Malonyl-[acyl-carrier protein] O-methyltransferase (Halopseudomonas bauzanensis), 262 residues
Amino acid sequence: MPEQRPDKRLVADSFSRAAATYDQAAALQRAVGSNLLARLPAEFAPTELVDLGCGTGYFSRALQARYGQQVIGLDLAEGMLRHARQTSPLISGWVAADAEALPLRANSQDLIFSSLALQWCPDLARVLHEAYRVLRPGGCLAFNTLLEGSLHELRTAWRAVDDFVHVNRFMPAEELHSILATGEFGDWRCEVEEHQLYYQRLGELTQELKALGAHNVNPGRPGGLTGRARLRRLTDAYEPFRTDQGLPASWQVAQILMFKPA
Ligand SMILES: C[S@@+](CC[C@H](N)C(=O)[O-])C[C@H]1O[C@@H](n2cnc3c(N)ncnc32)[C@H](O)[C@@H]1O
């Protein structure tokens, strides 16, 4: 249902505004990106690399350190790229572009790495098609994305308050598998990781999402600020999920490796 996906300009603005706060809030993002990096075959030795949806450039630096090669960091959000440029003087290739229309030559890259960016793209099949075009034979697209079930507690709690869209739509696993299976990549594997983070107060979770730039920019979102009474109802509706560790926030992360035939 691409029409339910957020507007890309709003996505870019939201992440640009979050560039200065993103890194302190990105513990889960670090963990799942590192898990993706660890899945790359030990013998794989790419020389031309792209970090797609690079954000502040954490994994662009990690890729450069691991492979000792120049990396292109590509992102939709100019603010993220400005931040990345300042904090990563050793990397020169920061490019503002959309994952659905890569400004890169066909057969020019060995590795396209993308951590927690592609769930923001309305048309994943198109991203895969672009990645396939840009990869050299034998090249790898390594990406992770969020699946249905992520933030289900927050979605359920909001449903007790109103009918607006408050939480992004995440793809069901079956829909992802069907997109992976129908694309040009013949050789791919997908594994799902479940993560739970815990908070003492709901405000800690909502503040963290804001600091990450993961704002509600969906069509059907409510206008204006959330009033006190509605926040109270939201907090009350979240409370039944509380465990000994605190209020949980669940994340379902699909980790995917795809290879272009050599
Ligand atoms: C959650 S951040 C992840 C950043 C980084 N990969 C990390 O793991 O720290 C998502 C990033 O994807 C970028 N993004 C969203 N939609 C995009 C698109 N269509 N093309 C390129 N980048 C996009 C956002 O601007 C944001 O910087």
